[in-house]
Amino acid sequence: MDYKYFSKFKNNKNKYKYDTHIQQFALLTYILGGRNCYEFFRLNLSGSLPHISNVEILIRNQEMRMTDSEFRFQLIEEYLRPNKCNYVFIAEDATSSICRIDYDATLNSFIGFSAPLIGGVPQPNFFQTENFEQLELWFNEIDKAKFINLYMLKSLVLSYPRFILAAYGSNKRAKAIEILKRWLFFYHQCLVQDTHVIGFSTDADARFLRAMRLCSRFFATLPNFNIFKYQAIFHKKCQKNGLGFSWKNNKLFLCKMVFILLQNLEIDCFLKQPI
């Protein structure tokens, strides 16, 4: 490494000024390598990288900081502006995590509990209190988040990168109707940003399959919840297949199941499951 390059940095009373390229390199090192890795480089290359507190300020200023249960709908328009395509697909998945409760001083909120769902949507900054008894009650009665749900948004332009819409801790106890209401929430919030969600993708979890059956009317209906009162953004024509049923033409959005095969023998068992 050419250490003479770092000697070009301007300093004023022990404060260094870094150009845009060094700041971007510092951000990538901090994000990909983690805090300990970044500190190792910074301490061994004295003056070459900004202090870690300055990197955190850069993250906050660029709206790169993710907050538990916060959906970044306000950034969708900026994400889609370069490719001029306002049709997107949303993917959802969950991964297990280590249960741990942390305190976020910036938000004055406790992170690590399973956030309550209202209309299928997790509530951000729900666990805020200055009462020790209330905190003790949460530790005794509220489930800790054992999973992290991640939502990715992808433009239909194949070469365009993905966008992280939201992430939150979960106990994976949401019902199929709550999942369907959450999808509708995404659909309408994206419409506010002049963006059309044409479909959702997830794995073959039984609750997601039931939600897909409900929104596609695949041998399932909801008497008190009419999803098809909304205007469909496209029409799909399908003919009857060998099993003797046909899909409905009007679709609000599509659903994609990953690694699920519905063969003749499997369908009989699948359709007998209650909603």
Write the layout of secondary structure elements.
Blueprint: E1 10-12, E2 15-17, H1 20-33, H2 35-44, H3 52-61, H4 76-80, E3 87-96, E4 102-104, E5 109-111, E6 117-118, E7 121-122, H5 132-141, E8 147-155, E9 162-170, H6 176-192, E10 196-202, H7 206-216, E11 234-235, E12 250-251, E13 254-257, H8 264-271
Parallel strand pairs: 3-10, 10-13
Antiparallel strand pairs: 1-2, 3-8, 4-5, 6-7, 8-9, 11-12
Helix pairs in contact: 1-2, 1-3, 6-7
Care to describe what's here?
The chain is an alpha+beta fold. Helix content is 31%, strand content 21%. It folds into two domains: 6-61; 73-271, no CATH class. Strand 8 and strand 9 (162-170) form a beta hairpin. Helix 1 packs across helix 2 (35-44), helix 1 (20-33) crosses helix 3 and helix 6 crosses helix 7 (206-216). The longest helix is centred in the last third of the chain and has 17 residues, at 176-192. The radius of gyration is 24 Å and the shape is globular. Residues 1-13, 238-250 and 257-275 have low confidence and may be disordered.
